[in-house]
Amino acid sequence: MIKLTRIDDRLVHGQVAFTWTPSLGIDCILVANDKVVKDEFQKMTLNLAKPSGIKLLIKSVADAAVFLNDERSKALKILVLINNVKDAGTLVALVPEITSINLGGLRSKDGSKLISKAFAVNGDDIEIIRNLLEKGIELEVRQVPTDNKKFVKELI
């Protein structure tokens, strides 16, 4: 079962490993990313960053959707990590179980603006976010589980 879907361009890092994972009782971290799945060095570094005893899966966005829709994945407590808004929109379209997304961290890039202290979006991102909100997907901003939820619809 999906416990949290999070957009964070750092993917697996301290906040994920030491706050989100224990707080949610996660036993499987799923990185859904078409580039990382082909990058052996990045896969190795993500594996080193994960907490011990936690399963790490790195799959393309399409393969992540297949995995999440498979009944066998329901026995796991899964944290889904995505590093951009576009892939989150794709995954939502493919995985009906995703009804909420945590916006954790997305660094500034050309043409982007901050909607929170750690999450920057551009025009394309805002369009996808609006589409997700129209579909009834909860979009919230929190760095760590103890932060209060800030709802994205109030920030854009």
Automatic annotation (TrEMBL):
It comes from the Bacteria. Keywords: Cytoplasm, Kinase, Phosphotransferase system, Sugar transport, Transferase, Transport. Signal peptide: none annotated. The keyword Transferase applies. Pfam families: PTSIIB_sorb (PF03830). It is found in: Cytoplasm. Its main location: cytoplasm. One of its GO terms (molecular function) is kinase activity. SUPFAM superfamilies: PTS IIb component. Residues 1-156 form the PTS EIIB type-4 domain. The keyword Transport applies. One of its GO terms (biological process) is phosphoenolpyruvate-dependent sugar phosphotransferase system. GO terms for cellular component: cytoplasm. PROSITE patterns: PTS_EIIB_TYPE_4. This is PTS mannose/fructose/sorbose transporter subunit IIB.
